[in-house]
Design a protein that fits this description.
Blueprint (H helix, E strand, L loop, with lengths): L1 H17 L10 E4 L5 E5 L2 E3 L5 E3 L1 E3 L2 E5 L10 E8 L2 E6 L9 E5 L4 H9 L1
Antiparallel strand pairs: 1-2, 1-9, 2-3, 3-4, 5-6, 6-7, 7-8, 8-9
Length: about 120
């Protein structure tokens, strides 16, 4: 009886040890810049740094949209590329591959988000 339980427990323990935390491998989420600007992506929807909710061109690791007026770089296309689970590079304009990109990082959880977790 103990032998059967041990034979079941050891493989289950080994599988549990191999399982690691799930890391974000998508551009979806809330992104912050060091100057205080923020944007949020959920699938093809974005809330721009100026607060406008609109749709853009979504893929799992990239996003682009036409910057609306009166935001900075209005009329240009913003191209975002996921560098790793916590970093996005953003470039503006037609020649988006040229120039130094802006670096954005995942926003820390807000106080209101933490309060919601406490209620669960």
């Amino acid at each position: 009886m103990i032998g059967i339980r041990l034979k079941t427990f050891v493989p289950a323990l080994a599988l549990a040890m191999l399982a690691g935390p799930a890391l974000a491998d998508a551009i979806d989420g809330n992104w912050c810049h060091s100057d205080g600007r923020r944007f949020s992506i959920r699938g093809p929807e974005i809330v721009t740094p100026g607060g406008k909710k609109m749709e853009g061109n979504y893929s799992r690791h990239a996003f682009s949209y036409a910057v609306p007026a009166p935001e900075r770089s209005a009329g240009q296309t913003a191209f975002m590329t996921l560098a790793n689970e916590n970093t996005v590079y953003l470039r503006h304009g037609e020649a988006a591959s040229a120039g130094t990109p802006e670096t954005w990082v995942r926003c820390s959880p807000s106080i209101s988000a933490l309060e919601g977790l406490r209620r669960l």
